[in-house]
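User: what does the whole thing look like in 3D?
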Amino acid sequence: DSGVTQTPKHLITATGQRVTLRCSPRSGDLSVYWYQQSLDQGLQFLIQYYNGEERAKGNILERFSAQQFPDLHSELNLSSLELGDSALYFCASSPPPGGTYNEQFFGPGTRLTVL
Amino acid sequence: SQQGEEDPQALSIQEGENATMNCSYKTSINNLQWYRQNSGRGLVHLILIRSNEREKHSGRLRVTLDTSKKSSSLLITASRAADTASYFCATDDSGGSYIPTFGRGTSLIVHP
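Assistant: Here's the predicted 3D structure for the full assembly of 227 residues, as structure tokens:
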């Protein structure tokens, strides 16, 4: 158990819908990262937050957004869902300062299926 | 952005044998990390090697880093069926982003 929690574990929804994925980092970790893992694209970095502020952006679609709240939990919002958004979505956290030696601790993931 | 690429894509061995996986990357890095992922589960950090280190050990794991060749290898000695998983290398950009970029992984199957 990494100490990172993600809910829900599974999510099945229809195209065009909107969903919210939730992540709670390990106690004391200030950085939260979101990743998308699909068979054809591998593990893709989406976005990073550090202590409530957006720190880095990767291959995140405009239909996707995220935020980190004062209690450091984070939410990833996916809207206007398409079949191709079906994937495993992982959240990871890392201890401060989020600099060079950035071992990440991954949550168990949310499996999203868009029908 | 740079990306580590693991080789081979898949590896099948018998219990007790050693497993070697390689990772190549494109530009200068701060550090390189290896992660393990059991099917459908989250990634688990195995080992981090800094750019000024050449070799590191952790239990049955041995990691080497050759910055001149921009490559790393992960050796698992005396493999066990429980080592069956996918293994990923992750590199970060010495230019300052510190965001690990993952390769597509090596799928290791250890037969009992």
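In plain terms: Residues 16 and 82 of chain A are 7 Å apart (CA to CA). Chain A touches chain B at residues 2, 4, 33, 35, 42-43, 45, 48, 56, 58, 88, 90, 92, 98-109, 111 (CB under 8 Å).
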